[in-house]
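Continuing from the previous page of notes. For each protein in this section, the sequence appears first, followed by its structure tokens. Read the first protein now.
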Amino acid sequence: MIETSEKIVHKKSSFITLIVVTITLFSLVYYLVAMEWDLFELLRFSLGIVGLWMPLSALFYLLLRRQVEEPIVRFTFSAIASYTLTTLIYFGLAVLKLEFLFYIGQITIFIGFIIYSIRKKYWLNIQIKSFSWKLFDWVFALLIAVSLVVNIPYQIAWKYNHTTNTYTSTLYTDHYYHTGQAYELARHVPPLEQSARARTPERAYHMFPHLTTMLLSRFTGQTDMLRVHIVYHYIIIEIGMCLALYSIVKTLTRSRVAGYLATATMYITAISYPPLVKNEIGYFYFTLFPHVSSGIEPAILTSPQMYSGMLVAYGILLGVLLISIRCYKKQPVNVLLIIAAIMVVATSRFRIHVFLPILPGFVLLSAYGWKRTRQRIYLVAVGVAVTLSLLIYLEMKSPIYLSGTTSLKLGFNNLTDPKDWTNWMTSWPFSTKIYDLLSRLIHNSTVFKWVWQIVSMSAFVALNMIGIPLLIINIIYLFCKPARQEFLLFTSLIVWMVVVSTLGAICLTTDYDNYSVGGQLLLPTCWYPFLLAIPGLYQVYQFVRPHLSLSISMQISTVVAFVVLSLIAQQLARPSRLMVNLLSKQVNLNTNERMAMTYIHDKTPQNSVILTNKYVDDEIFLLSGISGKAAYLEGAGNTVDQQSLRVYPSDNRRQVIKDLWTTAKSERFCRLLMATPATHLIEYSTHPLLINDPACMQPIWESSNKVIPTSSEKVTIWKINR
């Protein structure tokens, strides 16, 4: 009788697993079809990421086998560490003009791993039954697959209209700017010029996310950098985020189910809630749960640098969590600590807004670890982190970068001035009344501005970025014993990151821009407390659990129902306010222009410079982002262009372009043109030149009206004769 019951339970379990497997595979196939993958591209992508990241991942996985016992947690940390340090190592070798050593190192590690596996008879020790599909964690695989599916709307770059023969961009224009930077890094590392202002030095700024995109392009053989950026790279980040969140929460709660819930909350149950206090930009507003409006969507849609940087930050926080546990038990942390230290250094070029608070936080936590355990490795880790950070800073001060873009100083940045464009930082509950109250109480204008900035930014972080429910959950978790014992270093770093980021936003500024460093320090603050959402709820559940009479099946059914209903609500809530705002600023590209961009991408030399007057004043960066070549000038007036004009005041490219298109004299036209670094010129029939067939250039491509309807804009590409 007992054996019969066990067989029935086993059959039910197998049937449920089969359903989960089916849904997982269907979700993956749906994603691949929706994103227009073919088998050959999928094979190239798979082999590319293995070649790029497997060597370091495998090395770290083996080195950490005694310090991180849980396989999935060790794999996650090793994978994110490889994602981070592969780019750092390549960059370091490229600066020294030793890129060939990177490829030699990759091959050496790969061969060494194979030899190690053979000598240790690793493959022989794996039992055949361990390959059973039933033993695989299909629930986690399903969560990742569905996460990819719900992110499809964020990864569609173009929509084609057959009626008008136009392509409509569905991306925020900065994506093209970042893609142009990746193209430049494919030509030169470090970059020698701005992609949107050719032959002008680039900023010493966030480079590693774009360098990672470039490496992905190189290893997968995909020449369309926009697809690599928005599809390939985002897949890696999304899977990495799911792995990191699952590993952190599973370690904190010692519950696989809690890990599943945490994974689901990142994307699947992420609902865009309407604003309770509106602002002008459509995101970073006050609402009940700002995870989407202040966290996911601003990163995915407008700041891929932050998206990549947060994956690295989550990897570091996972490492600190593992270090915290071993520090509490006074166990060795040698390899784990050194890897985490180097990852901290890498954030300086992945996302400076993560680096500024995390480096001092890591140093303080390492000092505490040394004091508690007296293990010298903590001091070594501090030395490694500080020394490498100084080397990175010295590289950023190199004359190859645009002058004035590495300065950072303490001072009042005035970001909470209600009259400034950043007044969305003051759009939180009762902000107007509190502003009026403070203005009546404080008569000294300087003191008032500082007090208002402190109050406003603190309230903005607490209410608009973290949100009241998550803030309460975090406070509950911080009062539990594990948070103050074995997880002390981890929870302390979470609190430190939020507090120091807020303080930095209040008093940091730069010579060229008040917002880019100071203001954007506020933006990652919602990501850190989010890690404690499910652990906090789990503590509440553990408290009320004895008073509940729910069976295990009822608990599972409740969780499944919550996930499904949240997923439905998420789809009903789309498009979000941010997506609507971005779609209202769509850019249309007619078929002739698309073909011209393709010609420039495929047929012109890598160091070409493209000149046109169409995108001078529009910050859309289509020319450099799609054609893959540097633009003479596009997006004029942006922060980088303004700084470039301050450094090179005589290089007024907007005026040069205006003169080129308004002169009717061939000699003057050629004299102006030859003074530029341009190698090619694009002429549109809607923006025609006043001269015909000048001697200084010759047409090399022209759109054909026989192929494209006459209603389309005619495009001509000229090669400049030098």
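Done with the first. The second protein uses the same format. Note its length before scrolling.
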Amino acid sequence: MFLLLPLAPAPALARDPASASAPEPAFASAGTAVAAPDWTAPLSTRGRWIVDADGDRFKLRSGNWHGASGTWSGSGSADEDANHHAGENSGRIPLGLDRAPVAEIIAGFRELGINSVRLPFSNEMIHDTVPVTDDAVAANPSLRGRTPLQVYDAVVRDLTAAGLAVILNNHTNTTRWCCGVDGNERWNASRSARAWEDDWLFMARRYKDNQRVVGADLYNEVRRDIWDDPNWGLGDAHDWFAASQRVGDRILTEADPDLLIIVEGINWTGVPVDGLPHERPTLEPVRRLSHTLVDSGKLVYSAHFYDYTGPRHSGATGIGETSDSRYRDLTPAELIDVLNRQAFFVTGEQDRHFTAPVWISEFGVGGRAETGVRQRAWFENFVDQLIRTDADFAYWPLVGWHENRTGNGWALLHWDAAGHRMGLYDGDDWRAAAWTRLVGAQGRTGRVAPVTHWSMLSPDHGDFVASRRMRALPDWDPGARKAVCPDGLRLIGLSHTGNRGLCSDVAAGPGWDPAGGHRVVVDERYVVPGRDWASGYTKLQCPEGHFLTGYSVRGAAVSAALCVPAPPGSITGTSGRTVWFDRADGRGTAPKGGDFAQGHYKGQCADDEYAAGIAYTGRVGSSRTPDALYCRQLI
């Protein structure tokens, strides 16, 4: 749950050419069944949309079934219900298995109209060999004697057998309630980064044969601990961008290539004290530095929003509380502006290096007992935003406890100790109308046409090789930092400084001839006499019939160009043009791909061109950074 209190405990609460015209989107009418199981795994992405294996839009209409990551508050005996969040003791497994059969709980999910479940787990759960208590599975006696992981297995099996998609969510390192200063602030807060990666490979492999396990949600609410902030791109042990990039690629290459890789933004940085820097970055850093996975079409970004937090408010009351606005304090217009800036720009701006689906994987509000005007208004306004943007979403939480129809109240479904259910649609829950609007809202359905990919290369602190083929080959420039486009994409842009690159398959573009190898170019041997396209500069030019797919650097200096052969007849080889970007941007009037190197000059070939060479100067005072690209026409 989205409760970041850095200084206090959490309170209880075959691709088409880019020029091809896309068909008009189809839309579902309100009231259309949304939880039908007739979808085809695996899932992938096309631009801002998630699609199934048939290319049809699959909107994540999800909920969170929490518990396996822990409900213990961190103090007192874990055996006492009072020491668990809101008095709800999950028993180290998905909440509610002591009160209702799994089949009944899943039937309740289907009544809500969801088609997918975010299923949190802790790293500790994976290795926990202590069987769950009989009381924890009192309503599911077949689960007696099993470990928490084995119960998790059974839940995954039953959810997917019912046609629901499951997203694995690494919520915490240790099995306890999230999210304050609790030893779970980062992926490597309570275990090493390597152990965290290995746990992810274990989980991805464990469910590989179940194709309705569709995603890996890498870590929940990355945030500040007592002393240090997480960051996005600094290259140190707290770099969430680098950690998520690395484990995402490892999951796809070593465990399960079918999974969606879901990366949440940074939840909190700074000290929540008036006068000191602090903020909730969410997905804002993605605009300047985005992920490029080895498989295009597998990246999903995510974000969490609750009324009591804010863009600069931790959500605390008392210690850790500041005078900053909470989301519920914003006017509807202000809320839209903030939400778009923090997250929804990723889906709203097309043909950018960061364009991807955004899954609002947590949002929620108190139910029957919530009488606050601003809280209720925020929920209605936030649902309006989800509908307006046709966003993928996951409500937090699905399951809770009640006694005599009272309790925590946030869940959509509650069971009491006798197994009696209290549901969203019992007639006394004010959220029912908004939820019905949300799950039945008009939105895009049907086939989503393949899109052009735009991907950033960022060898800022080490190799950034997004090509499966090049990863499988020996190091082609030892000692240098190497950047290579994903297979099927070509290098189309470079920055003068900053070492950044831009890849694309715009205008179809040349594919890598599977019969060819690759060439590492470190000199001018392929420059044709009489065709000096950058006089006085060193030119690393690809051989005829080849195109640039990567480069390497040493410090800021160009080291080598990586060229690969195109299929015969797919590119021209007689002439080209020089695009200079040493003194100003050289990207044309309306370049696509977005600003892939903020604050640096950039050069970019036109959409109907490919890059065939890099030029730099070694004269005194120069850092040997890229100064020009040699762009040639596609056929």
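What the second structure shows: The mean pLDDT is 93. Residues 332-348 form the longest helix (17 residues). We return to this in next week's lecture.
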